[in-house]
Amino acid sequence: MGRERFTINPFPALALTDGEKNQLLELGRTIIEANFERDNPFFKGGRRVDPHRWKLSKERERMKVYTERPEYQGDDAMSNTSSTKLPAILSVGRVEGKLDDMMFGVVNPTLEDMRIKASYVHDFDGAAVLSTIVSPTEEEPFNSVVVKWMEMDIPLRRTGVVQNRDYVYLECTGFAQMPNGERAGYHFLHSIDFPQIPKLSNRVRGDLSICGFFRQVAPNVIDVCKTGLMDPAGDMIRMLAVPVMTEAFLSPLRYVHCGQMRKLTWKMEKAHAEARLHGAPNPGSSCRLQDQEEN
């Protein structure tokens, strides 16, 4: 994965008015509440997956990824809301670690954060930050609302038969309060359109709506429930797109490690900055000086 794919913004600057930002914030709240209301019974109901609705597609460690059966006709069928024949995807399971570490691996409001996350999580192949609405603070380090663009590599793209898919979307991270008082981390991505963000040549603009919730259920165990739809805009690549999407839904397995590595990097950078502030010598310089004295 080339670093340049995370440094070049293919679009002109996206300037949002205060009214547009407020609309996006309200959209985010609405989506989070709707998904929370839908997924909360899963957590309360013993984490049971309906085999008549969901078909196991992929399994790794303690995570399972399901696709919604096309014949399922329940009122809660997610695929019925899609304009394509692509199935809805459900990812459930448990991950070892602390919830704060996981959320630190999830939140990625800047381009550099996205690049670091992608190096560990491998959930997209190119990206750009288009507009920042809410940035993390010391008091709320996991809260972010950002408009982004990302690109996903599709198998056989080099043959010229298919083109990569890209997405323009609103991404939100933070914490929600559950009815029993527990906190749940959330992460959602939802496609949005702006006339200032035109479709790119050699890419097909897709749509997505994905929401994940994460709960600490034991001192070192995190419960995961992630659902969504990814429409790559074209029935022709369905067989190619679904495996890519199901693999992306296993990304929570790598969030904790990503968060731990980011925290370690942050602590090292902070220590280095404090050492420079107090005039501590550079370890490399001390070694070179000692070598000269010995000679």
From TrEMBL:
Annotated region (Disordered) at: 275-295
Q: Source taxonomy lineage?
A: Eukaryota, Sar, Stramenopiles, Oomycota, Peronosporomycetes
What protein name applies here?
START domain-containing protein
What superkingdom does the record give? Eukaryota
Species, as recorded? Phytophthora kernoviae
